[in-house]
Amino acid sequence: MELEHRGKRPSVDPLAYVAPTAVVCGDVRVGAGARILFGAVLTAEDGVIQVGERCVVMENAVVRGRARHATSIADDVLVGPHAHVNGARIGAGCFLATGASVFPGAVLGEGCEVRINGVVHVNTVLAPGATVPIGWIAAGDPAQLFSPDRHEELWEVQRPLDFPGTVYGVERGTDATELMRRQSEWFGAHRDDRPT
User: Fold this and answer.
1) Predicted pLDDT of residue 15
2) What is the distance between the alpha carbons of residues 96 and 75, in angstroms, rounded to a whole number?
3) Contact at 8 Å (CB) between 28 and 4?
4) What values do phi and psi take at 147, rounded to 5?
5) Which DSSP helix (H) or strand (E) runs through 176?
6) Which of 86, 98, 183, 184 could hold 80 in an S-S bridge, CB 3.0 to 4.6 Å?
7) CB-based contact 10:196 (threshold 8 Å)
8) Do residues 98 and 80 lie in contact, with contact meaning Cβ atoms separated by under 8 Å?
9) All domains of the chain, ordered by start, with CATH?
10) Residue range 128-153: average pLDDT?
11) Is 166 in contact with 122 (CB distance < 8 Å)?
12) pLDDT bracket for residue 190 (50, 70, 90)
């Protein structure tokens, strides 16, 4: 399903395929030979999502773009099932496995791999050809890799990356009621979406 959002419509190359149960919403540009499979959601909130040629966004993946953090996925990228790409730049030939999460401001160089349930934190930069192992977390610029049991070390790198400011535009410690009021209002704009 293709939806107009905030006055912007998707642009899907005639040689691309969008499955009937996928959602492509807003200023999403899908390149030639790309495949957006069943249940995938590509939603450009107030920015842009660019999907390159021959990319495959698999079942139930979510790709989100915002004005402060547009999403660009270069050519020949696989975004695996249940993966999450939000406001990131993904280089050509990258592989994002099942359940991978790539957060706003992240940059993946060409040929990177984020393996099953791997995480690339906000404002993190992976060098070309880097690999995030299964279940590990990449954080920092340049990225450092952390196994899930190294939380204290990860936090030392992660904290200054400013997740709340990057993702929500608020200071750390903002009251949950205020944060969710803002989020609810923001996403309420989808009430006005229209099929194209």
Assistant:
1) 98
2) 13
3) no
4) -75, 155
5) helix 176-187
6) 98
7) yes
8) yes
9) 2-195 (2.160.10.10)
10) 97
11) yes
12) very high
